[in-house]
């Protein structure tokens, strides 16, 4: 079996007496869509922050693409191909969808574009930006100011911006949150298109989406991984069923 692209070893984070992630170990294989689910407050978002580098861990290790990245900053991790989809707040509302993605392309490639003339520079930024917009299904909205996009379209734009960093692994924290029915179908379709092309760690409350998209699912309860398995096996797992009793979303 291929080496994991991402491996968490005994990761832990506490706030005072509250241990939020507790001895979390899991492996994400190259190319898989690995979902992390769990009841409210289980520590999912904290775990994503630890993986992305937004939060430091109290103990444990994060190995990415064979390298120990535990103590690297978030930008250092992004440069190595470990990206997270940023929240809508990072979108520039007065800039078009295309310009938002082109800026991310430029940020990824740093000063190398300065060697180009203006027109060539624009083309070198806009062409990949347009490709990313097409991938997320926003190609037809490229010239619209980002502030005028619907909530669901903004979530698609976040994905395009994340793709512009050319990640090997994409961390997605509730990409369907706040989207309506049709919008959520569009985001799920986008994720299905990305699946296999890029390794994805997905946190999502929408169980239909999780179970239709994920190759494997890890279940976090009170900061601990109680199961990692295929969606079918997770659905039948007694411990998982017990953990979700009384929750709104049933597995
Ligand atoms: N900065 C912080 N200081 C203190 N406690 C925190 C902090 N961040 C998170 N917590 C607590 O850690 C626990 C886990 O929070 P986290 O947001 O990671 O859970 P979650 O599984 O993502 O929840 P949800 O599904 O509701 O989004 C919660 O009890 C939360 O109140």
UniProtKB/TrEMBL annotation:
Q: Which UniProt keywords apply?
A: ATP-binding, Nucleotide-binding, Transport
Matching SMART domains: AAA
| Database matches in CDD domains | ABC_Mj1267_LivG_branched
Q: What is this protein called?
A: ABC transporter ATP-binding protein
The answer to keyword Transport applying to this record is: yes
Every ABC transporter domain range: 6-247
The answer to whether UniProt assigns keyword Transport to this entry is: yes
Q: Which organism is it from?
A: Microvirga splendida
Q: Which InterPro entries match?
A: AAA+_ATPase (IPR003593), ABC_AA/LPS_Transport (IPR051120), ABC_transporter-like_ATP-bd (IPR003439), BCA_ABC_TP_C (IPR032823), P-loop_NTPase (IPR027417)
Q: Which GO terms describe its molecular function?
A: ATP binding
């Amino acid at each position: 079996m291929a080496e994991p692209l991402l491996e968490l070893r005994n990761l832990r984070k506490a706030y005072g007496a509250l241990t939020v992630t507790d001895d979390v170990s899991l492996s994400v294989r190259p190319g898989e869509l690995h979902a992390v689910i769990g009841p409210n407050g289980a520590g999912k978002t904290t775990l994503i922050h630890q993986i992305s580098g937004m939060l430091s861990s109290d103990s444990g290790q994060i190995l990415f693409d064979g390298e120990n990245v535990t103590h690297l900053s978030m930008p250092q991790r992004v440069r190595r191909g470990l990206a997270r989809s940023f929240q809508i707040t990072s979108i520039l509302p007065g800039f078009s969808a295309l310009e938002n993605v082109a800026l991310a392309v430029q940020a990824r490639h740093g000063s190398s574009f300065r060697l180009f003339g203006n027109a060539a520079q624009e083309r070198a930024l806009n062409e990949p930006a347009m490709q990313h917009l097409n991938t997320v299904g926003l190609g037809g909205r490229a010239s619209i100011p980002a502030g005028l996009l619907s909530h669901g379209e903004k979530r698609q734009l976040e994905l395009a911006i994340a793709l512009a960093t050319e990640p090997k692994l994409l961390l997605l924290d509730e990409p369907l949150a706040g989207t309506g029915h049709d919008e959520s179908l569009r985001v799920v379709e986008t994720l299905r298109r990305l699946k296999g092309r890029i390794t994805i760690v997905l946190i999502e409350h929408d169980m239909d989406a999780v179970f239709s998209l994920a190759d494997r699912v890890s279940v976090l309860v009170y900061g601990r991984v109680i199961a990692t398995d295929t969606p079918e096996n997770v659905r039948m797992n007694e411990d998982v069923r017990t953990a979700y009793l009384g929750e709104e979303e049933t597995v």
